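Sample 1 of the test manifest.
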Amino acid sequence: MGAPTAGARLLTVALWSGRFAAAPAQELWDLTVDLATDGQLWREDLAVNRAHAHMLAACGILAPAVAAALECALDQVEEELAGGRFVFVDSDEDVHMAVERRLTELAGDAGRAVHAGRSRNDQVATDFRLWCRGAAARLTAGLDRLSGALLDQVDRAGAALAPGYTHLQPAQPVTLGLVLLAHVAAFDRDAGRLAAAAERADECPLGAGALATSTLPLDPAATARELGFARPFGNSIDAVAARDFALELLAAAAIAAVHLSRLGEEVVLWATDEFGFVALDDAWSTGSSMMPQKKNPDVAELARATAGRVQGALVALLTVNKGLPLSYNRDLQEDKAITLTAVRRLELALAGMAGLIAGCSFRLDRLEQRAAAAGAAATDLAERLVAEGVPFRLAHERIGALVGRLAAAHRGLAEVTAEELAAVHPCLAGCSGSWLSARACVDRRRLPGGPHPEAVAAAAAEARARIARRTTKETR
Amino acid sequence: MGAPTAGARLLTVALWSGRFAAAPAQELWDLTVDLATDGQLWREDLAVNRAHAHMLAACGILAPAVAAALECALDQVEEELAGGRFVFVDSDEDVHMAVERRLTELAGDAGRAVHAGRSRNDQVATDFRLWCRGAAARLTAGLDRLSGALLDQVDRAGAALAPGYTHLQPAQPVTLGLVLLAHVAAFDRDAGRLAAAAERADECPLGAGALATSTLPLDPAATARELGFARPFGNSIDAVAARDFALELLAAAAIAAVHLSRLGEEVVLWATDEFGFVALDDAWSTGSSMMPQKKNPDVAELARATAGRVQGALVALLTVNKGLPLSYNRDLQEDKAITLTAVRRLELALAGMAGLIAGCSFRLDRLEQRAAAAGAAATDLAERLVAEGVPFRLAHERIGALVGRLAAAHRGLAEVTAEELAAVHPCLAGCSGSWLSARACVDRRRLPGGPHPEAVAAAAAEARARIARRTTKETR
Amino acid sequence: MGAPTAGARLLTVALWSGRFAAAPAQELWDLTVDLATDGQLWREDLAVNRAHAHMLAACGILAPAVAAALECALDQVEEELAGGRFVFVDSDEDVHMAVERRLTELAGDAGRAVHAGRSRNDQVATDFRLWCRGAAARLTAGLDRLSGALLDQVDRAGAALAPGYTHLQPAQPVTLGLVLLAHVAAFDRDAGRLAAAAERADECPLGAGALATSTLPLDPAATARELGFARPFGNSIDAVAARDFALELLAAAAIAAVHLSRLGEEVVLWATDEFGFVALDDAWSTGSSMMPQKKNPDVAELARATAGRVQGALVALLTVNKGLPLSYNRDLQEDKAITLTAVRRLELALAGMAGLIAGCSFRLDRLEQRAAAAGAAATDLAERLVAEGVPFRLAHERIGALVGRLAAAHRGLAEVTAEELAAVHPCLAGCSGSWLSARACVDRRRLPGGPHPEAVAAAAAEARARIARRTTKETR
Amino acid sequence: MGAPTAGARLLTVALWSGRFAAAPAQELWDLTVDLATDGQLWREDLAVNRAHAHMLAACGILAPAVAAALECALDQVEEELAGGRFVFVDSDEDVHMAVERRLTELAGDAGRAVHAGRSRNDQVATDFRLWCRGAAARLTAGLDRLSGALLDQVDRAGAALAPGYTHLQPAQPVTLGLVLLAHVAAFDRDAGRLAAAAERADECPLGAGALATSTLPLDPAATARELGFARPFGNSIDAVAARDFALELLAAAAIAAVHLSRLGEEVVLWATDEFGFVALDDAWSTGSSMMPQKKNPDVAELARATAGRVQGALVALLTVNKGLPLSYNRDLQEDKAITLTAVRRLELALAGMAGLIAGCSFRLDRLEQRAAAAGAAATDLAERLVAEGVPFRLAHERIGALVGRLAAAHRGLAEVTAEELAAVHPCLAGCSGSWLSARACVDRRRLPGGPHPEAVAAAAAEARARIARRTTKETR
């Protein structure tokens, strides 16, 4: 769609006022019209038109014949839009006006009748709430697919030893499953936040009109019901003025994107030669013909960057809303361009990471080797003393001193002898050798939620069950 | 507390390693130590110490006598902290180390025993989750008090006529109650978001240790229960690495602060001479001895600015978390300074606005006069035609033309005659005069959630009931 | 452009490596390819290709005949792109690859030769720096046009009385010129910031290669010169890794957008019935056929909202860059989508506001009436006493007491008698009546930069001169 | 300072109006008073008081004796504040009122006279601009010290081989100097931005009064001069309403903090066992007595997190300013708490990183080993062909094919024979063995700004010279 001619703009202005002396300026048009964005809401707009028409007919505001003609025209418009054959004209200010124009072309007075008891303010708010509900569902599905890919890896090698890091320094040996499930746990809460956002948005603005409802005997509960909302609006000013439903969606998305960036960062690290924990699949990385060993983790990098995109969108919409008096202000039009772009980027990044994770191969030997370097054994010795009644700080001090003496002699804890251990405390006599191995350290940690393979398997099963419950609910 | 001497810093470093050759540099200390912030979590730290000690005793890790000595020392430390008599020393790196030091001074080995099976990583995460839970409750109470003040004004004058604005232009007459309840509706959802944040954070990290749990036979479910958490951690890496509980709290707070800024903006506007809708109470505004008529709405201005503070905090913590590999990184220490300041500002702003609203007097005559200027009557005439079966766009056009003719003759719609109306359509014959008044326009809008006094009263009652349910739940 | 087939994607991957076993996944393609964005940089890409080819020829790396063939092909590609006839194919990963592909189609080996001594890393960075330089110039021109519109209004009615506000309460009478020039002053600094951003970005990355320059005898100074950069890169890693040139542009744009939002807010207020300071032009506002008096200031509202959009972009790019190791990471690709959208919105908003301001009519009678309500006179009386040697606080107190006595008798300061004034201090005897008028208050304030009409005229002349200097520089 | 009693608050209100019936509410006080923040501006406030007093005396508004008494009292107040002996009282609303109160206690009417021709609006703006100027200088010094530490490391080992990364994959061998200088280059631009911010803020608001200047014969140029500003305000409304000077400072600081986060990330990576590029000094890291090999890079982590803090502050102040009408609004009070905290964090992080860098030891053997893995040699072979006239893409393809063949035989490029090379092209006959080494690759890259040791030395010398010029300018 190119810019409209002054004539077309004058045509539009006819909708506002016969009294306006001048067509809107081109710059006003450029600033205010964004069909590329709101055109993406055509499905929602048609659904809202249908529900509104049904309600008007049921309330006796539209005659049955008019309602039937409208239904027919809506079918036609839907076909045109779905088939990419709908023609926008220069004077179409937004998708809502385009649809009404086309309905009128197709059905005459029936098209002219559909906007009864409605204003663009409540119509737009309803369309956008519907879109946000769908977006929350799509993002949840994306998170669940990514979690599914992680869980598949857990199934494959969840019990393998892996280093656990703090400060990016190996701190304690854990299992690969525990590491991967940490990300699944975060994504699960993200799905919960998206569901909460969708639920709180579950209120239908239709019937609020411009801001003060209508004098017609409308039935907002009926339109709410048909569109799958839990309830109609509770305050007609709030219904057209509030955008916290989009803010909450973006906030949930921004937090999910931060979690995704943490996984992205880990994959970038794991895929380095230096860490060497993972081999990426060819289909999910980019390379260089000159350096065949190089596989760039572009998907993980762009997933990491998505945190910036979504956070930027959240900030944009928070700032747009800041300090706005009630009810509707034109500032709010920006909500859609901001939200749609951010949601789209996050969807793509989630899909990309799901594919990347599904296709990667963990290098279990390298993980095990690094797990051995992450020495929990000193802590275990101290806890062994604690079990004998030695106060923790003293136990910690004594083992620290032992470790220090060994280090001064350039020996690691793995090389300590049974005698040296017994000299610290008789109860440690049997704690040399394999007692100090990474596997033994992991095996001694049997708490639920911990690194033990059984705990990992149980947690993975629970995570799968949670996803299954969500999926069932979605598809119901 | 001044900066510690190098000696004191060396003392601290003793906790890290006897092998460190040098005391930490002063700049490292300045950057890493922030007792002014984490000192605010002393209540939570004591609660965590108590619960942990009880669990250790119940699990047989602490002897009964040790546990009793610890309890006693904890009582004493609590008294000292509550009474402002607790003395921090130079080497206290944070409130957790300060408490353990003092426990050890008071109870010797019992103090040295309390950290068994625990790491600063899970301890800090637990303290901070507790604090966030309390913060959510305090913010909810603040929102409810503000809503209560608005509802009191609705009780006083909810049925009074008021102008409803779009684009800050009077659009339709409504009632003052509808306007005030629009803000209450938004704050109610904010309370819902805070509750959701608190609920999702309802997982106790204690037992996760540094990141890999412990070899001791701990009972994380017991500490979770004593501290009022719904459940213990589900993944020990996630337990020390995740900060989405604080992010979600800040996101909910940021959205609430945006809502507060919209109310603040309205109060600033209403308090202008030009709008003249409200008179502020002396105790809640600032003035000028030279311009006695001037009352500055400082509280509303600072409430408006709070949106910036809280949004800034949300951005800060999102950015801090972005791209961090798991599990704990020192970056996360910044979470507390960021969150505490923002929550405190929002609490103060909510309290300020509750007082301001409670103390202000609406100028009902002025509101009514402006309501009359917000002419819904033309819309009502068009809807009257729609009720007769005229398609909406045609009805809209005909009334628009009538309004245009009147305007060309410098007459308002209020001056239209019965004859002129009848000429448009016979059904409009009776719609002149008082039919066109703002009060009649409001009276014709009887939908729930709309401006009609009865709808307003019903909505106010529901809002009060929701607040009452929350308050009951809180105090249970 | 639709999504490419797997075959096309395999074709692309040929550029990376013959060893890759699999075509890139569709999701990887969707996430990584954004031709709609980088296609907007085609002008810059062609300029860079030309400069690079010229330099290669001058350095003897390209034979004269090859260089000539390349020039010819570049002309053709430019014609195709400018004319909208350039055909992108499915395997075009970005505009740079598309251009090189087309050059090769047109000129064979000459096209294959153009990428010598160059990498996509330095090429993209150069393209984008050029684009940012142009963006800074366009935004500056937009600011200057808006300032020009404000200055035209100053020329028309700069000396008219207007209320000066603090806390949105009338505080002191000023002149309309002073008010409008306050915005001009802010936009002038914004232009300075944009110039500074462009200047600091004035370094050409070409020659930095992937990150480590090249072994060919390139002349980076020559390409820098031809592309109008002040100098070539100073560090080849920094050249491909740094994006602070875009961050500084966005920061300058975000601050300008905040200034624009403040002007937008004022216009929205001025255009209310309640303030009534300005009448908007039909071509620059939207209306309602049902409420002919209503003119919605959509342009000012969207200008206000632009602050959100640009700030969101700044946050997005800051967060994308946060914590990235050097040198190039794929995260950086997001820079363009973020920056281009934000700059475009700000350009449109500046153009819209320039038109809106140019077309609006200030209601001077209403401004003067409100100026009278903004009583500086009490301050002037106090300063009159100060001029007699009374310490300021005492003077302030005495006049405050006088004002208080009058107010208690429901009299304004304008009604004070000469006798009452003389009773406070003999020097005030002549200060009743017209001495207290708003015009007199303004006339007594003769400092440069103040409200006096002469000061306003002088400041306006200086502002025009600054703009003229910038414009001359631009067009040179 | 605790909260003031209602009596003290009533005392304060006396400054506003004798007509106020009620003391300000405690909540209003809590929300509006922040002495902990603005108390940090006492040095600036005293400087402003001195300059203002001198100007008043020079203009004949203060008698010489009064001026002398004031000077004396200012000396005394300065001593008290510098010595920590100044006593704030409950009714001190801010540091400005506290200072004036104390001056009045010490010097009676001279204290009461100092506020002539001044308002808190212009006074606060001047104080804060002075503070921001000082902050820019301190941050610049911090950046320069950090750059100095990096340059010292360049002096030590700038010519050592190091891997150059793209996508965190080794891409080409470079020198350690080139890597470190990339950070220095970014910090140098940051210093430039801070200088630009300070320069643009170089306008003195004193004399603007509340917003409309004064009727007294003030000399704003004189106060500007004494306070070291380049010029007095150009528009009195802008002078009290604008905060872009702080926004620009924060924007420059936020970009610098992003750069610091990138260095922080690199140090964290370099300090891992897996990369192993650097050993941190004991004094600049934290450790664990149980894992003696573990040295946590806390300083680098907190430096990385500082990007979040400063960006959050920038967002906060942008959002606070968004949509504010002119001139002063109380919202603007938030500027100081926001800015001071962020600047302080960045100062500490810069100091911390300077120390960390100064104290760390690069492991040159490990760097050299990884440099060898970053194979530029294939590119060099292709460029060798280009030098013979082979079009780049063909050259690239042929070498790519060679590399592919070798890889298929599990051989690296380093193992290629002279015969194999000659088979590709005769000119490559001599390019086996040491020609392919990392050192040779670096030695062939002689462009200024590149990795060659001579280029590095030259760039380091230039960087030192720029810092020296800044330092000289500062101390002048």
